[in-house]
Amino acid sequence: FNAPLASDNPEEFISVSPDVSINVSSDGAMLSIFGNFEAEEEYAVTVSAGISDIWGDSLDEDYTLTFRGAPLDTAFNISTYTAGGVMFIAPENPSVAAQVVNVDRVYVSSGSIGLEEFFYLDGIADYDTVQAYQPDQVNTTTQNISVQRNRNQQLSIPLNDSRGLTPGLYWMSLLSDPAPAYNQVKKFFAV
Hints:
Largest sheet: 5 strands, mixed
Number of strands: 13
Strand content: 35-45%
Order of helices and strands: EEEEEEEEEHHEEEE
Shape: elongated
């Protein structure tokens, strides 16, 4: 608009299809529309011809803007539920809970570590040393994930290929594909 709107309730002149709850505000000649728009959904926002500015000028006809909501960013998060990144996992069901958005697969790498290494990495080593660490022998499996796009979902990620897990101390690295900015999660856990 070229001048401030005349209406104190500009939302009366705004419609959205498909229907979604919106908040409309105007500040001088600017009209702002906020809503809970779904990712990758197509919307049409229509401003009715009856809306006018303080000088009485109005739109000659309805104006419609069509847009598609942006997809949600990829997200992959694992919570250890304990301090220090140590997780206790039952050997008969070696899996971990994860929150994911738009993840297709997870690469699960693991390797056995000794008690001395564990105490060093979990207590004395600095962050960069812990992040760079990898045991000499590492086994990597791929877990394909089937989840609905653009929804934050919790799922259980198996930590091996269904053989169970021998009790012991393990280094773990879980990497999602596609990868968010914080794509690598390395954890230590005792079984």
